[in-house]
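Human: I'm a chemist; would you kindly supply sequence and structure tokens for a protein?

Assistant:
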Amino acid sequence: MKSDELTYLRAVRISIMGFAIQLVLAIVLLLYALFSVRGDVDHAALTLFLLAIGGLLPWLGLIIVHHQQKLAAIETLESERFSGPESGSVFEGEELRVAQRRLAVMFKFLFPTISLLLAFFLLAVGFWRFQDGRLHLPYTNYSPTDHAGWGIALGAIIGLTGYIFASFVAGMSNVKVWQNLRGGAGTIVGTALAAFALAVTLGIEMLSDDSGAARYMQVIIPVYMMILGAEIILNFLLNVYRPRARGEIPRPAFDSQILALVAQPQSVAKSVGSALSYQFGFEVGETWFYQLLSRTVTSLIVLALVVAWALSCLIVIEPNERAIVTRFGKIVRQEQVLDSGLHIKAPWPIERIERFEAMRIHEIQLSSQPDHDSGAPILWTNDHALNPNDFVIVAPSSFRGSADNSGDTGPGDAGAEEPFVRRDISLINAEVPLQYRIRDVMKFVKLAPQDARDDLLSYVAQRELMRYMVPLEVDEILGPARLRIGRDLMARIQAAYDELGPAGPDGVPLGAGVEVVFVGLSNVHPPKDVAASFQRVVQAQQEQVTSEEQGRSEEISALAAVAGSVEQAHLIVAALEDLRQLENDPAADPENLLTKELAIEQLIRQGGGEAATLINEAQAHRWNHVMREWALALEVKGRTIAFRAAPSLYMWREIFQILETSLLDTRLYINNTDAHVEYRINLETQDVLPSIEETPTGG
């Protein structure tokens, strides 16, 4: 086709039309996103609106470039008109072709700038919407649309309109002067493809009464945007290093190869045929097999799709599984649960199956999640769980009291009589694994939606855990009561599960359809920040126990040494207490007091301890003293009798005994009384050396 101003003028008009259609699609998607959900927005439609807004950039660049191409064509035509083939002219210089130079600058800078802006927009917005979509993916955070019919209609209209216009523009891009329109066609078909996918998921949601498909579009569309942005970045890098002939029109990086195949699928067959002809060295397209295949390829594809669709009627249930059949989201065969083996159902999406691992033990962590991959030792002072800040509220030590605060009772039976008083709380870390198995599949199905069953079971079990643990003292939980706590929790959680589910014909809840097989309590410890202080308390308690045991040991030693044994000492103390009471009683019989004293003495003697030894020594000393005094008394009595018999003789006998005793170590001089004897006494003062026995010791 001739590249004149009319050719480029038509490209400008098509680009303006594409910009207008893209803008209208974006506005329609924005209105649907804002008003389709009551009290919220449709996050998938809002992401699709942002994708459509990003598609305005390529159309704006095509309008500017094609308009500049029109100006360059007019400039070339005027230059040819004013210059002859053989005569020179002032308009022949390249420096005077202003429009051509501007067009070259646009090809060099405008297209790459728009491509990079679009790529960064798709990547940034896609990542933002992906993170937001993950938050709204669970059933509890997802807000389904209130106008699914409008969504299906708008998605189908946008998809059909966008695909028809994109196919038309892609056909125009086969002409060399309009080849850049392929980028705009890919942009609008990308929006149309995403809108059609949203309409399909809304249709599935409406027919099957299941919001799963539409929910996932909140993350599928952002991922789709990030893929397109990454492709634009890759095209930009390839364009930098791709060699181009002089005068060749550069291809913009926002021209997506993926979306070009969707906008013009017939180009795929041509590309495959050209590649085969090149490989085999002859025109494969002219052979009878290729001609036959080209005529029947559509039928073969349809047949393959029909066979694949028909195979969805056959389902295989694994040995550890049980399943139910749903028709458009409603359970069919109410009382039939499919066992393991081969089964037949209606094709998808008329009937679908929901599988349950009924033969497997399922586990829920009610508190701290153990980190089995860390390999770190499990200590009170380090983090060894994935969620170390998930605490269990318990009572501190000495929590129970006698006042009745709220009528609540302690753990265990609901009718426990011992009240407790709420004063303050303590926090502990603990791993509380709950293991269960599916006992009744139909009751389990009716419990809650598929993605909410595990959450419901976890929340109910955590509620019972908190109710049970709050009255328990921290020392009791850290002590030997863990096995009892696990058994009590298992019974309470099982009773709570049996109260779940819809009511039966008799008004009684059907239950959750699960059986609790184990509830444990392990790795119990105080929070890491206070573990050291808690260990000091435990150490002080151990020291207290050690001191008490040491005191008991000394008590036993002392009592055994005094009374012979601890039991004998207790008997003696009790008897002494009875004696004290008798002594304080004025009307007590003295004989009873004497009898009690003798009994106590007999108990002391039976013990054989130090007290018995002292009594025996005192008794021996008493008898020695009595016998000695008795001997003196007998001696005095005998002398009295002797004195009365012969007083003079007794007196001289005593005098001589005294003299004998006094003069035992004295010198005796006997002389004649008639001799003259002169006595002279010499008195002198002399220092007498002390004897060894008289030497002072300084004491």
Notes: The mean pLDDT is 78. The longest strand covers residues 322-327. Residues 381-526 form a domain with the Tetrahydropterin Synthase; Chain A fold (CATH 3.30.479.30). The chain has 19 helices and eleven strands.
